[in-house]
Queue: 4 jobs
Job 1
Amino acid sequence: MLLQAYIINNKVMSNAQIEIQIIASIAAIACAIPGTFLVLRKMAMISDAISHSILPGIVIGFFITQDLNSPLLILLAAVTGIITVILVEYIQKTGLVKEDTAIGLVFPALFSMGVIMIAKNANDVHLDVDAVLLGELAFAPFDRLVVSNIDLGPKSLWVIGSILILSIGLLFAFFKELKVSTFDTGLAASLGFSPAILHYGLMSISSVTTVGAFDAVGAILVVALMIAPAATAYLLTNNLKRMLLYAVGFGVFSAISGYWVAHWLDASIAGSITTMLGIIFLLVYLFAPNKGIIAVLYREKQQRTEVSLLTFLLHLKNHTEERERNVNHLNEHINWQKVRSKTVLDLAFKNNMIVIKNKIVSLTDKGDAFTTKAIDYIITNKDTQIEYMKDDFFLFRG
């Protein structure tokens, strides 16, 4: 994809443009890994809380080291992220408020504490709120890592890249444990895993990832990169490995395409990437084959029609009088409108479940067997008898 975008208007991209896209792509991959598990655990908004509440940890680390590039800032910010999660869970467990309310109480308080600490103790430090919240990827290539007069590239690339390697290593090492504890904490505990350790480990790597991307891409884009690709992938698959791959793919595509949208519109890079994430999610939300809104609406419409079909067939099975089965009077006896009656009649006839002779509708052997098995399935929920019907009828797919 980088090669395809390499030549725009017959001009070769500058090193800065390439580095911006690489930084954004690596940040997207690093965020997608913990983000997938946060979405599956229904903890998506905790990433928003972490991304804002880590500011006090960064400030305290700066006060101790007087160096914005010190690893201590990342460590203390990660600790602050864990404290955020603990506080949110503690408030939630009181039963007085829900999780979203607890998040709304904790992260503004911690973020405000960080701002106050800067205002009172570091007046000579410039806090750019736009840079903190929105980030400025355009400036990331200019903050270089130089060792022995050797330019090793942007510092943010090394920071985020290191965190990505750590995330991938932990993912491979604890994939089975994370998978089991995500879907069934009881089973995880019975197998000897510690759900609490895995939970706070996930929160730790989420905090570290947030801090690593904080300077380059900003808090808002970190949240978007953690949640939007994972939520989009969730609509397309139930397989965890595929979900991780899809989330990574959507994140990288949005990072690169968002950069070029920003380049074309002369707009914020972080804002454009977030917009692309939203557009991709919207498209998948509408058109996903199984969970997309159009597919769901179509399936519900078909199921309503099939319920009507079953009602119609049951009416024929329970009524032997010709007057009750006359094609011209069915809508009156079942209390349906003529359009609905015709739709159901056509569906039954198409599937060879009825025959019409002298305007009298009768069940075929297939229709009679279908009705009996369908009613039995509805009562017992045992689908061995109707397995062969699942391909033709949404009603029996669950």
Job 2
Amino acid sequence: MNLNEKKLNRVFHDVLTIISELKEIDEECKKQKCPFRKSKIHGLLLEVQKELTSLREDILEAIEIEDEE
């Protein structure tokens, strides 16, 4: 495994961790019916989650292309 693959794996792990934590926050807020869910911050967190999910998909696609070459 070269240095770029190590970095990519670390970033990939961090992205998955952040997505997981954002989902946990959202689930806890649903259970507690907190006003946070309707706030601007919540909207921003959902946007971050969407962007990270997209980044994850792009990383997976790049890995697949690299493997084919």
Job 3
Amino acid sequence: MSTQVTDPKGLVVALPPHERANQSVARIMWTVALALVPTTLAGVWFYGIRAVIVTAVAVLASVAVEHLIVRYVFKWETTTVTDGSAVVTGLLLAFNVPASLPLWQMVIGAVVAIGIGKMAFGGIGNNPFNPALVGRAFLLISFPVEMNTWPVPGAARLSLDLSAVTGATPLGLVKDPGAAGLSGVDLPSYLDLFIGNIGGCIGEASALAVILGGLFLVWRGYVPWQMPLVFLGGLSLVTGIAWVVDPGVYIDPLYHVLAGGAMLGAWFMVTDMTTSPMSLTGRIIFAASAGVLTGVIRLFGGFPEGVSYSILIMNALVPVIDRHVKPRKFGYGGEK
């Protein structure tokens, strides 16, 4: 029940919040987990049983690490694993690694993602960086060979060892096309990029699957539709300029949008409520800047992919954005 107070003018005003939504952390997180089901199924279809095992290990390790920290480090009486946030982190972390990644490295990634990326700051709602991307960045720096070994989709769905059926990612092919330029590279079709059947991380298997999950979150009101679009728009702007300048060396922006982790980053990473700005304007600035940085890293950086690092950089700048872009205040003022 709201407490009522009387202001100096005799008006009876209830203390905020004035409107309450039927939402909770658990409801939101489990809805996000549900939205990730199409991407999970696509990863399993294209990369087989190893995708199932890697994803399961990532989720179980994330949940176990959070429970151990809550129970034996924080010594809280109630666990937080039931809110689903550790499950979402585990899923997103698994989607950011190849299906061939050794399981012990997957466990290390989960420990870093949950232990350092999330719980070191006090748990969900307090972490400034996306935990799954913290884990991916650590794995990419620590195990560059394993993190850049890509299984060929559909080559050995029932095999537990995918090391013998590896290939290149679409972004890897265009990163260093050689002296002949892009004309000498056999690139996947746009249909393959959209539906699936390309090499890469588990969550990069199908742009369509990611979009379906993202649209579900937009429909539920958990994701502002502007953020994914402006992220992809920023990426398209940078890569489009490069393509217009030298189409023989740089691939067109549509290829960049469909390839790699752009879709996963746009719909599930940039839109993370905890690590993005408070206001819608701030979120748009955040997403657009991350998209531009992704394009710059892809074109001129040492790695063919730049989604993770661009979002982490923008995570660090969220306090600056919030300081200068504040929500409009209503009912604020004074007598002259």
Job 4
Amino acid sequence: MNTRPRVIIPAAQSVVAAELIPVIGYARVSTWREEMISIDIQKSVVEDAAARRGRYVAEWIIDEDATGRNFKRKVMRAIEIVEDHERPERELWSWKFSRFGRNRHGVAINLARIENVGGELISATEDVDAKTAVGRFTRGMLLEVAAFESDRAGEQWKETHELRRRLGLPAAGGRRFGYRWYPRRIPDGRGGWAVQEERYEVLPNEAELAVDAFQDYIKGKTGFGKIAERWNDLGFLNTRGAPWQDQGVRGYMDSGFTAGLLYVHNPEAPCGDPAGCKNAEHYTYLAAEHESVINGDEWDNYRDMRTVRRNTPRRALSPVYPLAGLVRCGLCGSAAMNHQTRRERGYAYRCGARARRKVQHDAVWVRRTVVEGRVLEWLVDLRKEIDDIVAGKIAVPKPRREPDFDKKRKKLQREIEKATAAMQRAFEAYTLGDVSRDVYLSTRAKHEDRRNEAQRQLDELPSPDKEPPSPVPHRETVIGLLAEWDTISVHSKRVTLGRLIRRVEIRPDDDVTVVPVWAPADPPLKKGPGRPSYRPE
């Protein structure tokens, strides 16, 4: 029997995860789904490319519906992992470099954070060795192209939004409570699209609820929470199909859509980030094409009531007494509280902080009738003062300006701007690797001292005189309040007084002082032991 020699073929060495290098995987799908590459496809491509280079993805960071134009994303968590010296991952893998970000400044700063700890950003589909000069140049060009595409798309969307606003339409379209939305494109039933005129038409049932909400709010009968509760009880949901909440009602009513307006960011406002701007002064209202459900007077009254209620303490929104929330202790600045007797509620005002033993000073206790009487006397004197100002019997001082101070103020402001710009240039140079950390820190300290010194000198300069505030614009309010003092409701009286009075200070011996809203602002009070947390407005 012939026997053949056996040939033993050794088994191929398997690569286990322990022998691979762990990395962090990052995937992002834009808000507008550009390129339509799903998260699953990105993860599959990254994992295959990493395995070919002896890596495995130890942890995935996913950003869904996230724009690359800023870094307010979960990708910051991936950067923190790379910077963590207790974690072994030093590489951040993505499908393309553009997934990391499309903002030039943000990419430079966060890429520097990765590389400063020996990390690296790697693209699974773009074979670039960023450790070489050519590789860094190539990566920079790819990131620049991504930023260019983002800017181009942003400009197109901006032009589209501006065109829609000129046509009197909301920038992003969508449903609005109280209206039926007819979008421009609708399915034609044959797999295609039909085009129609985009418009909004009033829905009577929802519009009636909106009108009632505005009227009740103007009268002070309700708030946003109560409106939301009422709409939910009646079975009306918001445009997303969810129950109403007070924040949603507030945003809906403040938007001005029911008044035939569009709430938009003012293109003239000096703002570097219009999309994320939260400064109310940078927004304005534009006329829209849809039919309004409330008239202009109701909208103006709503805006006035919003201003009044914004500056009114919560307990004073449904007042029992006309000065609710306005009376303060003149010794410590804390809110006054009502003191009641066995026979009469709200008999007097006293210092609330002293009553709770939070402060120690002389007793402050003044009868409510005395305080309200002094306020009425103040209104009578105020009407006479306004009449004298209008008649020219009282001369209002004109503001004085010192030319030397104006020149010095402008010089110091320029110095602050130069120092701030120098600090920003130093930071950019450091993030790009042009200067060392020690050079950056010393440069920053030098310009920071320079800026702080200029700011100190600027703060010491006397503030420029402005047009002195005057009670004259409140003349009609004062006359109307005095004429209806005995007949007006407590709530209406409290609202009207809130437009004239910042606070009423009470002190021992029935000393009552009325501080009007046009009085100079008070210096801020420092908090300390035994002092209540109150800062006069």
